[in-house]
Amino acid sequence: MISHFTYERLFSNSEIPGWKINFFYKQRPYSGIYHSNGRIEWLLEAPDLENAANIESYIHELMLYHVYE
């Protein structure tokens, strides 16, 4: 499960989409950029393929809840 999820806008102009995300998954920190098309650009280390689909699904749900609603 994802914990300590935070996000912030990349640009001060709220018309331009893009968010920096940070969170922990299985006690490992992850950081990335969430693009408006749903693509995640990992900044430090990408999650392994075994966990990537689950993590991306969690992130999409969180962003839909926090940003788009």
TrEMBL record:
InterPro entries: UCP037692. This is YheE family protein. It comes from Peribacillus deserti. The lineage of its organism: Bacteria, Bacillati, Bacillota, Bacilli, Bacillales.
